[in-house]
Amino acid sequence: MTRAAEARARRKFRVERWVGHYLANPIVLALNRIGVNTTLATELQTIGRKTGKPRRVPVAARFDDTGAWVISQHGTRSGWAANITANPRVRIRQRDQWRDGIATFEPDDDVTARARTFASHPALAGLAAATFRALQSAPVSVRIAFTDHAS
């Protein structure tokens, strides 16, 4: 990556982090607290690497029978991904139920193909991939393997 590309990625990361931290995440979390859930995002809970306290962040997730896929758009630079690096035990909300799991980074996974699976309908797959691409700086797929049993 060239110096100019690295500088653009750092600027993009700072803007995206600010928007997420101060605008998008608080709105989604507040709506979740009062019972207004969205299919566009769910909550991921990690343990803070510095504080040891639970930290929640909205993420887009694709669930299957054994776990979930999420994409860290900024790689391990995002706060929640750095928390996973320090402690991979997480909780993720699947509809109205919290699920325990172990998160692992999957750097060999095709992030663009993975992002297409997040679409609610196959006709929207291109739009889902384009949205992820517009927001990312150093994306990596994250697999969350459930360690509990769904009830």
From TrEMBL:
Pfam families per the UniProt record, alphabetical: F420H2_quin_red
GO molecular function: oxidoreductase activity
The organism of origin for this protein: Mycobacterium talmoniae
InterPro entries given in the database record: F420H2_quin_Rdtase, Split_barrel_FMN-bd
Protein name: Nitroreductase
